[in-house]
Amino acid sequence: MHFFLLNALPGDPVLSLVGERASPEAIENIRKEIGVDKGFIGQYIGYLKLLSHGDFGRSYYTNRDVLKDIVMKFPNTMRLAFAAMLIAVPLGIVLGFISAYKRGRFIDRLINVVSITGLSIPIF
User: Fold this and answer.
1) Which end is more exposed in the chain, N or C (fewer Cβ atoms within 10 Å of the end residue's Cβ)?
2) Model-wide pTM > 0.85
3) Spatial contact of 47 and 39, defined as CB atoms under 8 Å apart
């Protein structure tokens, strides 16, 4: 799915790597190096081959190995998710009990509005 989403995006990954002022030769060399000179099917087969070997590639922006970045950032992501769950689960249970106990009253409606608003806000 990731492959298809990236290919659906407008723009050229090579131009984002080298900039618009790069020479045509440099652009063509990088196209061959990262495999975007092949057709869609060729790119997809190359993508699947790399994934099957555990190679997630290099970042277009930082030029670092993507898997190393994931491994480096995963512990902090898990700490953040765990801390959020420590707050969200007990708070959700307490507010759910209050809303059920005061069913149909103002506090019930207020909790419902706040909950639905919280779920509706996009996460960026």
Assistant:
1) C
2) no
3) no
